[in-house]
Amino acid sequence: SQKIEQNSEALNIQEGKTATLTCNYTNYSPAYLQWYRQDPGRGPVFLLLIRENEKEKRKERLKVTFDTTLKQSLFHITASQPADSATYLCALKGGKLIFGQGTELSVKP
Amino acid sequence: DAGVTQSPTHLIKTRGQQVTLRCSPKSGHDTVSWYQQALGQGPQFIFQYYEEEERQRGNFPDRFSGHQFPNYSSELNVNALLLGDSALYLCASSLAGGQGDTEAFFGQGTRLTVV
Lengths: 109, 115
Prior knowledge:
The complex is a heterodimer. By secondary structure, chain A is mainly beta. Chain A has no helices and eleven strands. Helices cover 0% and strands 60% of the residues of chain A. In chain A, the strands form two sheets. In chain A, strands 2, 4, 5, 9, 10 and 11 form a six-stranded mixed sheet that branches. In chain A, strands 1-3-8-7-6 form a five-stranded antiparallel sheet, with no helix packed on it. The radius of gyration of chain A is 13 Å and the shape is globular. Chain B is mainly beta. Chain B starts with a strand and ends with a strand. Chain A binds chain B through residues 4, 31-32, 34, 36, 41-46, 49, 51, 89, 91, 93, 95-102, and chain B through 4, 33, 35, 40-45, 48, 55-56, 58, 88, 90, 92, 97-99, 101, 103-109, 111.
């Protein structure tokens, strides 16, 4: 069956460092992959979309890679700030969105 | 633009009761999807409505039903509530039937507690 897995453990990093979050998927060939940010008690907010023919995409301090051979996407936040603390969700797009379980990121000052 | 709005924000129901949650999509959006999010989990797709019809459905029982109105707003109905239905219910709107590389805009969710 189709499966999406993200880092199951929370990620704790120091302010200014680069945070790297992983999203792996199986039994799926997505045309697109999206990343969302979710704060406690709120709905997810769209961050980035990457297509299957794109290897990398950047938006300000965010960078996403998409390796269809490894069936993996990496999400990087450079120069992280405490305000980046949230849960980050990856989602595969094929009409409907299929989400991973999310990775909680905590950036300490 | 008010974005996606959901009501109510919080709700407490008793087992066996029925509940209706409401969603108004972002202005200009024609597609509404509903998700259930348990604590510590990612959102799980319930179903999607486009042109007032259910277009796709996730792995949820028939107790979960919905409707989309001509103004694109939507309702999610859950019958015979179970304790396990306690979750954050999210509505997301998008364009063009949800196909293609369109992002989804989420509402703030409705926190349903079944006691």
